[in-house]
Amino acid sequence: MCTIVQNKPKVQYYIVHYKCIAFNGCAIIDKDTTFGIEMTDTLANPPVKPNRMDRRREQTRAKLLDATLTLIIEKGVEKTTMDNITETADLGRRTLYYHFGGKEECIIAAVALSYSQIAEQADKSAHLHQDPALAFAVAGQLVMRKLIESPLTHRLIEYPRFLATAIKQAISAYVTSDLELGIKQGRFVPPADPGLLDTTVMWMLVGILIETIENGLDVEQSLIYFTAMHLVFLGLSREESEQLAHDAARFTTSG
Question: How does DSSP assign the chain, residue by residue?
Answer without folding.
Answer: --EEE----SSEEEEES-EEEEETTEEEEETTS-EEEEE-HHHHS------HHHHHHHHHHHHHHHHHHHHHHHH-TTT--HHHHHHHHT--HHHHHHH-SSHHHHHHHHHHHHHHHHHHHHHHHHTTSSSHHHHHHHHHHHHHHHHHH-HHHHHHTT-HHHHHHHHHHHHHHHHHHHHHHHHHTTS----S-HHHHHHHHHHHHHHHHHHHHHHT--HHHHHHHHHHHHHHHTT--HHHHHHHHHHHHHHH---
